[in-house]
Amino acid sequence: MYISEKEIEIRYAETDQMGVVYHANYIIWLEIGRTQLIKDLGFTYAGMEKDGYLSPVVDISIQYKAALRYGQKAFIRTWVEEHGRLRTKYGYEVVHEDGTIAAKALSEHVVVKKESFRPVSIQKIYPEWHQKYEEVKRKIFDGIRN
């Protein structure tokens, strides 16, 4: 399993009145992490869009564990949790500099044609991208995660 990591310097504008990162900013950070993972693997969302495809979020869940604050650094760890014919699920951890987990998340995506929003198989349109995801995704054997 390959895990990408992206550093985020927390800006004042990302915090709420209590001085902690506002919960919706985590979704933006997940996108930054996912984009970095894809870049690390040799692909780009921009290239996909140029080719006439999109990859919308169809499900997302976040569990908040420990607050992050202005002036701190956060690290977004991202990996391919599951990858199938039409859907890809990404896993995330947002962590403090000391490794404390601030949040855990999962997002599920499909690839669609831009003009029709009809789902397409990534294996058909980008076989090399599909193969790379198969190589790096989290492996599950007999219910035990590696």
UniProtKB/TrEMBL annotation:
This is Uncharacterized protein. Keywords: Hydrolase. SUPFAM superfamilies: Thioesterase/thiol ester dehydrase-isomerase (SSF54637). It comes from the Bacteria. The keyword tRNA processing does not apply. Belongs to the 4-hydroxybenzoyl-CoA thioesterase family. It comes from Planococcus versutus. The lineage of its organism: Bacteria, Bacillati, Bacillota, Bacilli, Bacillales. The keyword Ubl conjugation does not apply. One of its GO terms (molecular function) is fatty acyl-CoA hydrolase activity. Pfam families: 4HBT_2.
